[in-house]
Amino acid sequence: MPSKAVLTRDSGGDSAADDVLLRSPAVRQRYRCSDMWIHRRLKDASGFPRPIYIAGIRHWRLSDLLAWEAAQAEQPVPKPRILEHHDHALAALAQKRAERNPRLRKGAPTSPEI
Question: Which pLDDT score is estimated for 99?
C-alpha cells in the first residue's frame, strides 16, 4: 500500500504516468523547507516545477523536481552582496565616528590635556 506522501503508477514504460508523485509534505521534507518557501518558489523566477492537482491536493512529479535540482546545480553560486561594498562601508563608518567624536580625528590628542 503506497504511503500518503508518495503515489506511484507502473504501466511498464517511461511515460509521465509512470512517474512518482510527491505530495506537499514530502516535498517540504525533501528540501527541509516550509510551505511558504514552496509558495515563493512558485511565484519567483527560479523555475520551480508547477504542481499538478489531484482531488485538490498538490502533487509534484519527482522527475520535474530532479530536473529542477540539476538546473540549480548548474547555476553559478551567487557572490554574497554584503562583501561588495564592505571596505567602503567600513571607511564611511570610521569617518562618521570621527565626525561625531573629535578626539578620534587624526592628529588630535587622544587624552585630555591638563
Answer: 86
